[in-house]
Each structure stands twice: as C-alpha cells, then as structure tokens.
C-alpha cells in the first residue's frame, strides 16, 4: 500500500546500503526518478536492470572459477 516501508531484508547483513546505492546509480543512469509517486513500471524497470546486472556479474565470476 502507499506509504508502507519496504520490509525485505538482504540475505547478507550490511548489504542493504550497498543495494540502495546500486539502485540509485541504476536509476540515474536510466534517467528514472524513483519514488512512490512514480508508476510500478518506472520503478520496476530499475529493479529489473539491477537483477540483470547482478546475474551478469555472477555468471562472469562463476565462469572464471571465482567464488562470489
């Protein structure tokens, strides 16, 4: 609902701040303004791009034999 705070917790303690920074970097790069007054589509594009980049990062590191 409108005005509710996100209650999701990152799997790794302390990763929340890094994920928030990553989210804002992605949004700025895409020219999207995040916020409750924006559409789900606009906000969702940022989350989708974050997921895409995290998967690419993981695939690159797994294919080179590095642990993530």
TrEMBL record:
GO molecular function: double-stranded DNA binding
Domain of life: Bacteria
InterPro entries (UniProt xref): SASP_alpha/beta-type, SASP_DNA-binding, SASP_sf_alpha/beta
Pfam family, one: SASP
Keyword vocabulary terms for this entry: Sporulation
GO terms under biological process: DNA topological change; sporulation resulting in formation of a cellular spore
Function: SASP are bound to spore DNA. They are double-stranded DNA-binding proteins that cause DNA to change to an a-like conformation. They protect the DNA backbone from chemical and enzymatic cleavage and are thus involved in dormant spore's high resistance to UV light.
UniProt protein name: Small, acid-soluble spore proteins, alpha/beta type
Species this chain originates from: Acididesulfobacillus acetoxydans
